[in-house]
Amino acid sequence: MKTYKFISWNVNGIRAVDKKEALKWVDDANIDFLGLQEIKAELEQIPTTIFDKNYQNMLVNSSSKKGQSGVALFTDIEPLHHDVTPHVDILDEGRINEFHFENIAFFNVYFPNGQRNEERLVYKMAFYNRFLEHLENLRAEGKSIIVCGDVNTAHTEIDLARPKANENTSGFLQIERDWMDKFVAAGYVDTFRHIHGNKPEHYSWWSYRANARTNNVGWRIDYFFVSEDLKDSIKDAYILDKIMGSDHCPVGLEIEI
């Protein structure tokens, strides 16, 4: 048995984060899996100066639309299999790293945002459903599942500072929250809530406007989920809200496998 440490962070531009030296803390953090979302870069554009640690594996899935989306996964563990899961990310927006090790399928995901227009909301919901179907197929094959990333939805009223004011905002629409209910009911555990219960005022994203982060007017939209068979293996789950450099902060999971 080994305790693995996972970190997930929507960096909102890996080159911007590098200029702020906002990933240097990784060098001393003993992270087994570092999943970054919204890197907004191609493989060759990722700075070599983001941190000094030389991970053996850097898996990058960039968007076909330059300067948008994109995910990157760093680990010293050798994959049994890895993919970008194109049948879920059908628009090739660089949204998924799928990494298999031991009997686990681990996903680093930047889920779509539905705020642009109705068409993008429809796409977001279809993406959610394709993703869940893919996970269920893997579970049917006997795989355990770990999912991290920016899900772009706050699940319940305690997951954002101003729920009433955002009832008609994508990210807290009833249709999006209903899918989160469906996801949890299908046997996926919100690891932060598993450890911390219904503690309010714990957020992972804050608008750049109106001193939202200073005033902790935020949303919890970044998650680690595990399939129910791993629930008793969860050792810790947390939000690193003191780490700056993006409008999101990192979230973490420690799990014994």
Describe this structure as you would to a colleague.
This protein is α+β, with helices and mostly antiparallel strands. It has a single domain, classed as Deoxyribonuclease I, Chain A. Helix content is 18%, strand content 28%. The protein has four helices and 14 strands. A six-stranded mixed beta sheet has the order 3-4-2-1-14-13. The chain has a six-stranded mixed beta sheet with strand order 5-6-7-8-12-9. The protein has a two-stranded antiparallel ribbon with strand order 10-11. It is globular and about 45 Å long.
Looking at the structure, the CATH topology is Deoxyribonuclease I, Chain A
Radius of gyration: 17 Å
Put simply, the count of helices is 4
- What overall geometry do the principal axes of the alpha carbons give? globular
How much helical structure, as a percent, in the residues? Answer: 10-25%
Query: Which class best fits the helix and strand makeup?
Result: alpha+beta
Tell me the number of strands.
Answer: 14
Strand content: 25-35%
- The figure for the number of domains is 1
Q: What composes the largest sheet?
A: 6 strands, mixed
Fourth-tier CATH superfamily name: Endonuclease/exonuclease/phosphatase
CATH class category label: Alpha Beta
Architecture (CATH level 2) name: 4-Layer Sandwich
Terminal Cα separation, in Å?
Answer: 5 Å
